[in-house]
Specification:
Number of domains: 2
CATH topology of the largest domain: Translation Initiation Factor IF3
Order of helices and strands: HEEHEEHEHEHEEHHH
Radius of gyration: 36 Å
Shape: rod-shaped
Number of strands: 8
CATH class of the largest domain: Alpha Beta
Distance between the termini: 93 Å
Number of helices: 8
Strand order of the largest sheet: 2-1-4-3
CATH architecture of the largest domain: 2-Layer Sandwich
Strand content: 15-25%
């Protein structure tokens, strides 16, 4: 790695081995093709360095400059470029289809925090067992997340998608993103979310309870029929 760094570093002054170079003076003027000894003399008179800036050219191009200052400016540009580079961070917030209004607000607060940190957020609905029959509830929650945060504040980078027992979407903050809590406050959001307990929790529970009753009744009927059949078979044998 050190050897590679040496190869990338330009040759300066006596490190330049060619017999002649195309010279650019300290003011940026084209001097022309001169012997390397002459170029070194010109650089020394200007109290600067002779730097090989285009070694692949024929002859190589050299420039008279303050090499220390040049390196400092190059490093400064590299640091500024690194600062401008943004790493993509994706956070995930998970919901259940039977979430109540209080938990919903807590989850939305987390999403709001991540978006405020300029992170992308993967919003996931986790289904268990017979909850897969109520995927429309998951879509309602995802739609409500967008509605609560503000459709004009986020970009949906990945639309709603179902994979296995999970349903998810990915959202990212727009440059104009503003925290919903800085704007509205918890009390107003609580009022907006008051209907969630009925819409997203009670209805699903009622439906699931009905399914449980149906399943239990079916099991009892099957058991009684099986017993009757067993008694009939026993009488026939007798």
């Amino acid at each position: 790695m050190n050897q590679r760094g040496k190869e990338n570093k330009p040759r300066i002054n006596n490190q330049i081995r060619c017999s002649e170079v195309r010279l650019i003076d300290g003011d940026g003027n084209q001097v022309g093709i001169v012997a390397v000894s002459k170029a070194l003399e010109i650089a020394a008179l200007a109290e600067m360095d002779l730097v090989e800036v285009a070694p692949a050219a024929n002859p190589p191009v050299c420039r008279v400059m303050d090499f220390g200052k040049f390196r400092f400016e190059q490093n400064k540009k590299l640091k500024e470029a690194k600062k401008k580079q943004k790493s993509i961070v994706v956070k995930e917030v998970k919901f259940r289809p039977k979430i109540d209004s209080h938990d919903f607000i807590t989850k939305v607060k987390m999403i709001d925090k991540f978006l405020g940190m300029n992170c992308r957020v993967k919003v996931t609905i986790m289904f268990r067992g017979r909850e897969m029959a109520y995927q429309n509830r998951g879509r309602d929650i995802l739609d409500r997340v967008i509605e609560t945060i503000g459709p004009d504040m986020v970009t949906v980078e990945q639309t709603i998608k179902t994979e296995g027992r999970n349903m998810h979407m990915t959202i990212a903050p727009k440059p104009s993103y503003k925290s919903i809590y800085a704007k509205d406050g918890d009390e107003e959001l609580m009022d907006d979310m008051a209907e969630l307990e009925n819409d997203l929790d009670v209805d699903v529970d009622d439906d699931l309870d009905m399914d449980d009753d149906d399943l239990d009744m079916g099991s009892e009927d099957i058991s009684e029929d099986s017993i009757d059949s067993a008694e009939v078979d026993e009488n026939k044998v007798s």
